[in-house]
Design brief:
Low-confidence stretches: 446-461
Distance between the termini: 52 Å
Number of strands: 21
Helix content: 25-40%
Mean pLDDT: 94
Shape: globular
Structural class: alpha/beta
Number of domains: 3
InterPro entries: Elp3/MiaA/NifB-like_rSAM, Methylthiotransferase, Methylthiotransferase_CS, Methylthiotransferase_N, Methylthiotransferase_N_sf, MiaB_methiolase, rSAM, rSAM_horseshoe
Bound molecules: S-adenosyl-L-homocysteine, iron/sulfur cluster, FE3-S4 cluster
Largest sheet: 6 strands, parallel
Subunit structure: Monomer.
Subcellular location: Cytoplasm
Cofactor: [4Fe-4S] cluster
CATH topology of the largest domain: pyruvate-formate lyase- activating enzyme
GO cellular component, one term: cytosol
Oligomer: single chain
């Protein structure tokens, strides 16, 4: 009997990418091998995102291509839809794409073996979009992680915020947090396997609570031997309190890029969005971060939505001026996309599509000017970089990230690539692109990784 093979295609956020690692682990335990060729896949899963309408449309157009592949094989192929489109549309997917065999909701990953088994047993199409509030307690040895130095750990799932534009609370359910001991145990095991960077995941990662709060979990993570960096995504501004920022200040392994998604710079629109802060309260967070992290290199990033229903032109300009007031190192900005079932659907005063795109362009161009100046200010300064890629023979053979999450391409005489892979090095910044830095290795030793006291030992060159 030939080996069965699977292919998983992933859209969406880091949580979806990690869910793919979980499904890959499950299929591996069932005896399936991974393939990167569509024509070899016995099971083809789309792990999907529905955050904006376009993301959802991509899924259905991809399914159209897979339908042809299935027809070529006279139906001998399992096509599955997992992730947020599956959770949101449920059995509606079978109506729109009747050749789909499997619809697997975001809380049903553990049911995958049973469902695939039933499909092999010709028991008809399989659907599971049921709520399983314990789905976040996933066995930590199962996920099949890649070969990089980075690993992801789910610490919480779901969102209770119900921002009025957002579909996530509907696709991921209510907030649930994993016991902190489980998280730390998983981190220790991964560090023991050689992973150097851990990214903690949650739809609302800093509202984590399981006998200890997020700040305390970060302190525990900072003590995991062998790790160099701990990142986390996606945070909410309301949960960045002084305790979290002081923890970042005190713990050298915790990343210093502060993602503070504002969404808008206008207090009336923020209220309509259900964001629980005004522009002034948001700025108070920014001032607090600047005060507590004084002397430590950190970056500030944000997400924005333009053209939310009822956003007047002058209210949009409040978002533009917020960019100046904060001075973000990077932003991720989107035109508002109406999502079915969300609170904002009731607003009739939508902004025309063309106007939304115009506002988006203005915002992005404005940010680029700010960003150019901020990146330029880093030239000639030192930076500590954790190397995650070594490409011998290239002009800039070392690639890595700073503690505040900037990508750096480094000139170096590499020699043995193992000397650098997964190690921290000291770099002098020599130039910039729009989102990346260029640098060269510094000869002097680094006393402290990420310029902090009590830092872990660092490899120097
Ligand atoms: N939990 C994260 C959000 C994840 S979604 C948070 O609270 O920050 C990532 C980003 O997508 C959001 O920050 C928002 O800027 C954008 N987004 C979410 N819903 C959207 C919609 N309906 N239209 C346009 N952008 C949206
Ligand atoms: Fe969506 Fe708001 Fe929850 Fe973020 S906090 S996932 S934007 S509802
Ligand atoms: Fe998309 Fe679901 Fe993540 S909608 S952004 S895949 S939580």
């Amino acid at each position: 009997m030939t080996e069965k093979r699977y292919f998983i295609e992933t859209w969406g956020c880091q949580m979806n990418e990690h869910d793919t690692e979980k499904m890959a682990g499950i299929l591996g335990e069932m005896g399936y091998q991974a393939t990167d060729k569509v024509e070899d896949a016995d099971v083809y899963l789309l792990n999907t995102c529905t955050i904006r309408e376009k993301a959802e449309e991509k899924v259905f157009s991809r399914l159209g291509v897979l339908k042809k592949e299935k027809e070529k094989r006279n139906g001998d192929m399992i096509i599955g839809v997992a992730g947020c489109v599956a959770q949101q549309n449920g059995g509606g997917i079978f109506e729109r794409a009747p050749y789909v065999d499997l619809v697997l909701g975001t809380q049903a990953l553990k049911q995958l073996p049973d469902m695939v088994g039933k499909l092999h047993g010709h028991q008809g199409r399989q659907l599971n979009v049921a709520k399983d509030p314990e789905n976040h307690l996933f066995p930590s040895h199962v996920p099949k992680r890649g070969t990089s130095i980075r690993a992801r750990i789910t610490i919480m799932e779901g969102c209770d915020n119900y921002c009025t534009y957002c579909i996530v609370p509907f696709t991921r359910g209510r907030e649930r947090s994993r016991p902190w001991e489980d998280v730390v145990e998983e981190a220790r095991r991964l560090a023991g396997m050689g992973f150097k960077e851990i990214e903690l995941l949650g739809q609302n990662v800093n509202s984590y609570f399981s006998t200890v709060n997020f700040a305390r979990l970060l302190r525990e993570m900072n003590d995991v031997p062998g790790l160099e960096t701990v990142r986390y995504v996606s945070p909410h501004p309301k949960d960045f309190d002084r305790e979290v920022i002081e923890t970042i200040r005190d713990c050298p392994k915790i990343a210093t890029n502060i993602h503070l998604p504002a969404q808008s710079g206008n207090s009336r629109i923020l209220k309509r969005m259900g964001r629980e802060y005004t522009r002034e309260l948001y700025m108070d967070k920014v001032y607090m971060i600047r005060e507590v992290l004084e002397g430590i290199p950190f970056s500030l990033t944000s997400d924005f939505i333009v053209g939310f229903p009822g956003e007047k032109e002058h209210e949009f300009w409040d978002t533009v001026t917020l960019l100046d007031e904060v001075g973000y190192d990077r932003i991720f900005s989107f035109a508002y996309s109406e999502r079915p079932g969300t609170g904002a659907v009731k607003h009739a005063d939508s902004v025309p599509q063309q106007e939304k795109m115009y506002r988006l362009k203005i915002l992005q161009q404005h940010q680029l000017e700010i960003q150019k100046a901020r990146m330029q200010a880093r030239v000639d300064n030192p930076a500590n970089v954790l190397i995650d890629t070594v490409k011998p023979g290239e002009e800039y053979p070392l690639v890595g990230r700073t503690r505040d999450n900037l990508l750096v391409h480094i000139k170096a005489d590499v020699g043995e690539p193992e000397r650098f892979y997964g190690k921290a090095v000291r770099v002098r910044v020599t130039g910039t692109g729009l989102h990346t830095l260029r640098g060269e290795l510094c000869p002097e030793p680094i006393e402290h990784l990420w310029s902090q006291p009590n830092a872990p030992e660092v490899t120097t060159v």
